[in-house]
Amino acid sequence: MRKPKKNMIVIATAISLQANAGFVLAEMDEEKKKSTVKVDAIEVKGILPDRLESVPGAYFVVDEKQLNERRPFSIQEALNTVPGINVVSENTFGLGVNIGVRGLNPRRTSRTLLMEDGMPLFLAPYGDPAAHYTTPLERVQRIEVVKGSGQILYGPQTVGGMINFVTRPVPNDGKVHGTASAMLGNNDFTSLYGNIGAGDERGGLMIDALHKKGDGIRDNHDFEIQEYTAKGQLNLSDRHTLIAKASYFREDSHVSETGLGLVEYHEDKYQAPTGKNDVFEHERKTFQLQHLFQINNQVKLSTQAYYAKSDRASFRQINDPGTLGGRSVMDRCTGLGVATEANAEQCGGRWRPREYEYWGIEPRLDLQHSLFGIESNAVVGFRYHREDIARNQYRGSDPRIQSQAYAEAFGDHREQIHTNVEAKSYYAQNTFYVGDWTFTPGLRVEDLRIKTDIRRAEGAAQNNPESKATNNQTKVLPGFGLTWNGIENTTLFAGVHKGFAPPRPDRDINAPGGANTAVVVNTRPEESTNWELGMRSQYFNGVSLETTLFHTVFDDIVVNGLTTGTFINGGKSEHSGIEFAGRVDFGRIYNTSHNFYISGSYTNLFTAEFKKTNAGASIQSGDRLPYAPKHLASLNVGYQHPIGLDARIGVDYVSEQEEDVAFRDGRSSANVLRGVTGDIPAYALINATVNYKPVGSQLTYFASAYNLGDREYLASRVDGMVAGRQRQVFAGIRYDF
Length: 737
Hints:
Layout: H1 6-34, E1 59-62, H2 64-70, H3 75-79, E2 85-87, E3 99-101, E4 113-116, E5 119-120, E6 140-146, E7 162-167, E8 176-185, E9 189-200, E10 203-215, E11 222-235, E12 240-253, H4 262-267, E13 279-294, E14 299-316, H5 341-344, E15 349-369, E16 375-396, H6 404-410, E17 412-434, E18 437-457, E19 460-461, E20 468-484, E21 490-501, E22 526-537, E23 543-554, E24 558-560, E25 567-569, E26 573-585, H7 586-589, E27 595-610, E28 631-641, E29 645-654, H8 669-674, E30 683-692, E31 699-706, E32 714-716, E33 722-723, E34 728-736
Parallel strand pairs: 4-7
Antiparallel strand pairs: 1-6, 2-3, 4-5, 6-7, 8-9, 8-34, 9-10, 10-11, 11-12, 12-13, 13-14, 14-15, 15-16, 16-17, 17-18, 18-19, 18-20, 20-21, 21-22, 22-23, 23-26, 24-25, 26-27, 27-28, 28-29, 29-30, 30-31, 31-34, 32-33
């Protein structure tokens, strides 16, 4: 596997920026003598533009005020208020989050682009877009969700939407600032977080540290995470700014990757017979460097370089749940019978260590101009991105295989796959301002090469021509949007854009004949046409609302294959629906410091179905898409008192969902017993929050409860039946200085 020369890249980038900075400083000294135009210091923001009224599509911002009001327990609760989003809660603390947008399969959020400060967060954005990490909410200042044609500037995933976690900026007022918080809850949940930073007009430094641990949804599913982040900013001049961020994250959890069989689930839906031995370990290191150059009042050049390395290893003892009359057996030790905690100690299993490394560099030019005498904002950019992925699998029945080191030294080396990705992205967009109208044409080009090399499969070395393949794709993705702002504090918008998702390499390789029988199967990329028509308004004081009608047509949607760990093209599908979101603050309406408020969102996904029969994918035309509930709703009622007290109670509702298409073929009795087929019933969960921050105090006391009614519900059938989280309550204290 060819490794990217990351050190050389980072060093070269730093030297280039340093040299450029030195040149510009000298140039600035000369310019001072000439009394050229003065510009304000650069302000670092998220991915949304300054003029939000010109965004030609649906977006939603969860700001710091809303995060504090709701006190979300995980990313799931933070996004439940966003219309169009379905979060499948098969995990307790937002680890391995599953987010689906407008009917797209939420499995590991592979069809929604996740970013932190504009940097992709997946294990590998092109080769394995799985979200085993999301930015901890403690570091987040706001969450930006973009679903319309405004996402054409970002990629590679542009079919469903993008979510950007904007972290807190480095202080610049010459003072020391920080936060210290502690939380404690049931299920042995504890959390400690600290942040400290200082800076002035020349720049500054900020450091974050986080430690969380607790018990998961099922028995023996304890977890522990830690993260350390350093963020620095150096203002070389009023025109030049350098921002660097480095982070280290580690997760150690005992989370079984398989669910329960039908009989097991009804006996005890929270059991995990192999949970003490099942392991998921994830270590992630990242570095991000940004150079912002405000050339003048009209032109800004920003260059971003990023690097990420993730090592994840999982151990499991059950591969297929419910295979013995609705109960699970361990696939390495079938002679032991039904899986129990006792016989799990006598069995081996399978380790799946995987390494991911990617880096990229992206210069972008933002330009205000008056081409053809029309006020305009233009964005032109390019990104070069590389990935290297190494996937291995080791198996064995010896209980010593429970040690990864032993498994790699003495186990059966069943699988070894190397994937290399090279991607080039080009984009340009221009917004024309004509009276109350804006017109925004845009274009994105994705040019990528994915090379797959199956070196070992089913325990045998592979060197046949079919075990190596290169998938080259070049896609031109146009978009166009318009807005009208002829009514005060109101925007009407419409847009259409071509969506794209890279081809999905199989997670697991089947070589039934042993040597020289493994074949690389390259899926075609997903392509879609996304239409939107909507309105957002704050016309009335204290009232905000938005609504969007959307229609998405997939030419060739990708679905899970009939063999676990594989992907195939499932043919045409359509997604149509309408979204609503709004909030009423009666305190603002009646000009009183006592504020009662109502906020909510609702999505009706009235169409989410396949339009083409595909026997190879077990799809029938008219079948509903998996994990695409027709109704999603969130309603919250709250009160804010001038002494610093606020309280909220709410309910989140998810209607019935269908299982993955791979298991629908006649809903066979075997799959019913395995728990992978059948509907996922609707459920509604009550949640509540109380915050108290005395006037003039730097202390905040808070408590939150989710699933307050302790509702038992089925969350997922992916790899077996998985129960949703029971009641979770936590309380904490936070000190800001």
